[in-house]
């Protein structure tokens, strides 16, 4: 049996070797104490002005150029490959690199345009990065497991190795997108940080003392560094939203069944009490709308048995815009949930929430309180569901080479436990349904006091108790995970940056419990200074169009000062 | 501990005692050998001409009269209560009788109309029967379990006893429906026949040698005897379709999440790999459309977390009608699946399928073959899923008073088995998803040879290998249960009656396996003569409007000779 460490290092080196020499950093990166922030000017120094122009254009701007052949797909692909290579060297955000294939695909797209005088599809020439759960031909899917190297999801000789593609990959290709890299995850996917025995730790590019977040951590870091204009992550407890927030990005966790998960690798695949969902991350809401709308034009419900037949609904966007335009009485109503009663978010988060409330009021909209069925009940169910198999799946995968479990995962899955039985699972599913029903009726009931006749339009709340986690200090996931049990469509709204001069420690605070104390103590204004701060905007099930439109309105009002 | 037999009999007697003396049969019913068929003229002899007129009007006709106050709700309610009382005495089809409450509700509706000059809702004054899984205030839900008598789902002192109502019950009341009885089921719900230790066996009113079917057996028998114009059953393996077919009724198993199951009693509640679904049964497709459309107008997705937000879509009906009207080239295309390769249906079923094929061709539509992914794989998964808890739930319920398990259930659940673990359940869920995906792509692929550019519009197939089961001889459920795994919207189309002079035994047939042999041997033309014969019309997920419209077209063409 080969050594897991050597296997991991060999894989890491073989991927790094795919970076063209010309794109290697000329000198080692200074430590975070010297160069905390590697975004913006720092990474720009390694790029040409033209590369900067291209990579700092958002997805909507890119396709405006690529679908009219104003920009060649090849030039765009190359610029993003270059910048992604730099990003990876700075914060370890890639698992698989396939720049050559991407550039080749881009050339084919350019030829297509030259021949037909029109783009292949609505995403013609748009580079898209993918979390390392997507299967893409030509490369592996390790999901951070050393034991998956050279296999298909841990199995050898399946005939699918480096050939099989996930449903969404096929659809993105049909739409003209260019796939060029797969991004890092914590092995098991079950962590708010990204770390594994292949590429190590994925750092937050805005503040390298902090985590990029997880589990779609590579996406967060890569897109923040503008090494990709848009990418896809997955979320079973916050794994899209956490890193969107930590990196000042927009991102959405759609309701399960809105976008196709078919044919992707996963942890505990087949656990169907809380489904992991796939969703996009980007620097603009426009980019998120663009890729969702494009994917839905592919009718994924015909190719994924779990996808609901819900095309993109422009009218749902329009309904929000009509309310906003209506003026007098035409208000949106937001429920503000500053915390879940268990932990108090750190000062920057509390300030961000205040900023959003003031923005909402300045826009003439309304805020109301939110006193839903106890979140403690919900979170208890979530933790039980995540633990249904007692860790069997992840221990099996880690056991292939005998690699050690990384710390952020070990806090939950470290000790293998007894599996739940069918009866126990059923009992949890019943409690889950009852909680969903109560929450639904609570939400319905708000129609009585919003003043609009409608129930609350969206909830605004923190999605983590901190701006970003410090390494191995992601001590509470309850603020993001309740959304997964309720399957609500939820977007992330970047709000501000930590400012040590304003966001001071609340020295007089008496923590409510040991977890609350950990969160309270882990805030260090000096260390956090400059980090991104965000909140989440929560809509009901399958309200993706509404949630994105509301988030865009708030984002526009907050201004573009963040990224 | 009281004796289960005494408890069951006491319950049975207490329910029977609610039948007004004037409605009791004057003399004992002759045995089936003398009076095989108690429908039509036989039951009519105990009714007034006016009662016959009312009860032999279909739901659409009834509401035409009740929503215009042409008929008083009270008179309609009373007529159906009377006929239901007769039906119950003939075939044992009721678990709960609440005629007094129904007549009282009807009077309130009449008062409402008198006061407001308009009906309360689209179902104003329409009597609706409910399978004994619905909770209705004032009466119990035993689901056939002696141990549930005097409890709420087996538990005492919950405060919900005789007070709590299921979500759909609330909605039906909002719509103006009159609830008057709950119908019989086999205890556990997991059988194609209806039998329990409270009311005994529910017989097929058209041929009392045969089963009414199960598990919504009481609905089948009651509606066939026109003791109810429309009722609701549930289906996790055929439990709506089986008895619709056995009783010559229209019925639909909608896709899961189309109609609200919220707040109903169930077996193995929380098992969410194959969900039981609720759907209506009636003498006409119009009645099914009426109640589904009405229920969806209540926006059940706001009150049941498992319901999809899909209002009734008139345009989906229209699409079918437009195809039919288009004439030349405007064909519907049907896939014909005569069997699943495991058992050969009995002669009447094979003839019924021929009749349907000829009807389709006469109408100018088209039939094609159907060679899907092997159904054996599907059925193996279904049986595993039904057995996830090893029988824990049903043994617990039966164990409350120590009552014996009835034979049709015992063949599957008789011996308690080991429970599946979380990992095993997940593995089955993955196989299920893969099968769904393959079946979906197979269906998509038919677009290449239908000649219409569309994939096959619907599949026509038997839903049981026999016209109706003989007692304790329901030996194969594979023809109905595969639909549940794939979650397809499926309606029952009554076709003909068994004719012993045509449907002769195929003496030369060599059975393929022991089950096939049992099915082959259990056919007795003499015994089956006169029984109803039906097939099922299978559409894709959430195609209820399309499936009902197609079934209506075929039913109209087949003629009204059946009922």
UniProtKB/TrEMBL annotation, chains A, B:
Location of the active site: 131 (charge relay system), 215 (charge relay system), 239 (acyl-ester intermediate)
GO MF terms, alphabetically ordered: hydrolase activity
Keywords assigned by UniProt, alphabetized: Hydrolase
Domain Amidase: residue ranges: 75-548
Cited SUPFAM superfamilies: Amidase signature (AS) enzymes
Pfam families recorded: Amidase
Annotated binding of substrate, by residue: 189, 215, 236-239
Domain of life, source organism: Eukaryota
Family, as annotated: Belongs to the amidase family.
Protein name: Amidase
Species per Swiss-Prot/TrEMBL record: Hyaloscypha bicolor E
């Amino acid at each position: 049996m080969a050594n897991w460490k050597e296997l991991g290092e060999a894989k890491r080196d073989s991927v790094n070797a795919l970076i063209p020499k010309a794109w290697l950093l000329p000198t080692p990166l200074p430590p975070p104490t010297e160069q905390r922030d590697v975004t913006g000017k720092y990474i720009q120094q390694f790029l040409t002005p033209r590369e900067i122009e291209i990579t700092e254009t958002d997805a909507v701007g890119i396709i405006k150029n690529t679908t009219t052949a104003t920009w060649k797909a090849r030039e765009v692909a190359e610029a993003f490959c270059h910048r992604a290579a730099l990003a990876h060297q700075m914060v370890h955000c890639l698992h698989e690199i396939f720049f050559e294939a991407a550039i080749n695909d881009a050339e084919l797209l350019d030829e297509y345009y030259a021949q037909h005088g029109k783009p292949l599809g609505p995403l013609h020439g748009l580079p898209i990065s993918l979390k390392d759960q997507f299967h893409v031909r030509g490369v592996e899917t390790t999901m951070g497991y050393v034991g998956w190297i050279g296999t298909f999801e841990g199995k050898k000789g399946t005939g699918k190795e480096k050939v099989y593609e996930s449903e969404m990959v096929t659809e993105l290709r049909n739409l003209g997108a260019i796939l060029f890299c797969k991004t890092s995850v914590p092995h098991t996917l079950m962590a708010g940080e990204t770390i594994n025995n292949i590429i190590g730790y994925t750092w937050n590019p805005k503040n390298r003392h902090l985590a990029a977040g997880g589990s779609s951590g590579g996406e967060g870091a890569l897109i923040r560094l503008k090494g990709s204009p848009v990418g896809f992550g997955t979320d079973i407890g916050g794994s899209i939203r956490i890193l969107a927030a930590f990196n000042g990005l927009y991102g959405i966790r759609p309701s399960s069944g809105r976008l196709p998960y078919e044919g992707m690798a996963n942890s505990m695949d087949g656990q169907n009490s809380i489904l992991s969902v796939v969703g996009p991350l980007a620097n603009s809401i426009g980019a998120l709308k663009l890729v969702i709308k494009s994917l839905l034009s592919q009718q994924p419900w015909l190719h994924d048995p779990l996808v609901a037949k819900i095309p993109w609904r422009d009218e749902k966007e329009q309904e929000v815009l009509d309310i906003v335009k209506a003026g007098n009485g035409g208000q949106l109503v937001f429920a503000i949930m500053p915390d879940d009663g268990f932990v108090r978010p750190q000062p920057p988060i509390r300030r961000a929430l205040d900023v959003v409330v003031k923005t909402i009021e300045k826009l003439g909209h309304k805020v109301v309180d939110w006193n839903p069925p106890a979140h403690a009940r919900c979170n208890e169910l979530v933790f039980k569901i995540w633990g249904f198999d007692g860790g069997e799946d992840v221990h099996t995968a880690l056991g292939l080479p005998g690699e050690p479990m990384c710390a952020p995962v070990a806090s939950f899955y470290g000790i293998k436990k007894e599996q739940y039985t069918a009866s126990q699972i059923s009992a949890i599913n019943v409690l889950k349904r009852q909680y969903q029903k109560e929450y639904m009726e609570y939400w319905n009931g708000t129609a009585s006091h919003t003043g609009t006749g409608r129930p609350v339009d969206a909830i605004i709340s923190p999605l983590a108790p901190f701006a970003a986690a410090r390494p191995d200090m992601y001590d509470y996931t309850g603020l993001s995970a309740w959304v997964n049990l309720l399957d609500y469509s939820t977007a992330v709204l970047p709000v501000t940056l930590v400012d040590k001069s304003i966001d001071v420690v609340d020295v007089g605070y008496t923590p409510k419990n040991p977890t609350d104390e950990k969160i309270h103590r882990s805030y260090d204004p000096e260390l956090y200074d400059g980090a991104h701060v965000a909140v989440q905007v929560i809509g009901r099930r399958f309200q993706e169009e509404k949630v994105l439109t509301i988030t865009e309105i708030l984002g526009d009002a907050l201004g573009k000062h963040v990224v």
